[in-house]
Amino acid sequence: MKLVSTSNNNNRRTGNQPRNTAPERRPTPPQSNSKAPERRSTPPQNSRVNRVPAPTATNGANKKTAKPVKRKSPVKAIIITLSIVVVLAASSFVALGFYVDSLDTIFPNVWADGFNVSGMTLQEAVAFLIHEGYENNAEGISATLVFPDDTSFTVTGDEVGLSFNAMEAAVAAFTFGRNDSFFRNEIQYIKSLFERTELNNLSTPHYDDSIIYILTAEYTEKFNDTVFSGSMDRNEEYISIIRGTGLHPALEDKVIELALNTLKQAISAHDNITARYVQDVNDGDTVEAQIYELQLLFERIHINPVSAYWDIESLSATASSSGRTFDLSQAVADLRSAEKGQQIIIEIETLEPAYTQEFFESMIFAHKITSSTTREATGIANRLGNIQRAAELINGTVINPGNEFSFNTVVGKRTADRGFREANTIRNGIFEQGIGGGICQVSSTLHDAILHTSLEVVERSPHGLRINYMPVGDEGTVVLSDALSRSLNAEQRREALGSVNGRRFANDAMVNWGTNDYRFKNNTEFPLKIVATVTGRNLTIEIWGTRLDEDNNEDKSYFVVETVILERFESQTVEQLTDALPEGTREVHQGARGQFGYRVETFKLHYSEDGELISRTSITVRRYNAQSQIILIGTAPVVETPPPPTTPPPTTPPPDEPGGDGGDSGGGTGGGG
After folding, report:
1. What is the pTM of this model?
2. Ramachandran assignment for 174, one of left (phi > 0), alpha (psi -120 to 50 degrees), beta (any other)
3. How far apart are alpha carbons 171 and 50 in whole angstroms?
4. Which of 69, 261, 477, 590 has the fewest CB neighbours in a 10 Å radius?
């Protein structure tokens, strides 16, 4: 890259013309108070003069001859005079130095970026510069760039919002001559009395260089369009290139660098600076330049398609658009292998979006992705009512792409005023009455459905005991592990499998307000909807969404959940005294009738539409404790009972089916079941 700069001095700013200022203040050296002593050549008038008679020849022989008077040397007088002058000059110089040191104004004849600020205080200089428009004085500042085809563009100081800081300029002018030693500062002050000092570029310029980037990109593209038109032709369908012809395209980053440097020079000179973009290329074969042209053209032509997606704000599909491109690698290879002057044709391809808006909208909730049905086995009205209430609350819930479903968030706290009733829940391994008993059947049914998809389970807790309302699995999906099967005889194997009746009991999900939640994530590109219904005593939960394969056809692959029993734990019988029963009475505790425990591993099997196994993935290994059978033994004294009433007493509801409730709430309130 070569930079050729020219300066137009006709527009050089000299700042505002020097203002008419008061006569320069020149300090008068202080006068010395010392005076030389006056010499008096005549005696005072009142003094007496004793005259001595001159000696005579008669008496001179008897007396001594008088000594001659010595005259003072003129050299000594000159030295004394010069010494006095030197002392006076030195005193004056030192006094001037102290004067300069205490001066609170700018030195004489000092100009700040073309503005005369002589003799002003710092505050006066700032106010003067602002008043004279120093901070916004971008007039006459511009940078012009000329391309090889003589097209050009100019950016001015006003266009980039060029501004200066008056305080910076005033401080620089004020500190001039004050940053050196005591005597050097004094000498600089004396120089300023007799010569003008020009201080330039005192303030850091501030401007918005984004304008330069915009203009550079615009004019570089225009120039390159001219370059391309000389060597290639294109339309919507193809690009035609003739090898070895055309100009060389401009490099945008180089043009930007040149434009920025030129503007900096213009600001420094306070003038218009013109620079020419000169290409440093060989005059030989231009194939490399044409390859670079192709790369630039690819960046301009290539447009990625925009696929529609589900907007969670508007709850609708967004607009889609097609894209376009060409095979850059193949085009470069063809250009390199072509002969000089040979024509090359490159096809422009249309890129279709993965989903158009129309197709996306037609696919919303188009497929039933999964479903699961469980049956309320006890027939207790309160428990069925809780199931109906929870199903009602989750029914119709939409989970947008990337979002999570939270059972506790949607269903809310289980309280009587929200429509929940008392029914069996599991507390510390025993079935007891609690508000919301039965809703774990809803969360478990939902989890069983989710396990038959590729959706991501975020949070799930199993029950402490095995539950019996889960649906029966496909044949061969509830099995004993090889190790467990070998350790049991045939009768024990039948008993182990018979006790679970082929149910997917390990697909349960226990919920409890404040402690245990059930959450899953919509990891698809489409929204999902939960449809929950209760018909009679059957609860059905369906997930509706979109299942597409790579060709945007309905994905008909499917999932199977396999439960492998690894261990079985025997149930114990425990006797427990109670004063709630008459002495000698024995009966089974209705909340602890005993059941086997298991340790199980759950697998998810993915099959193709044709039944070919795609994958088998272990989901989890869980333990379900055995429940001891509690025999209650009465200790209350036997009392005589009154004769039976003439009318029969009302019948009590049948007890819950053993193990039929869910929800091991661990002693908390609002547990599931």
Report:
1. 0.53
2. alpha
3. 76
4. 69
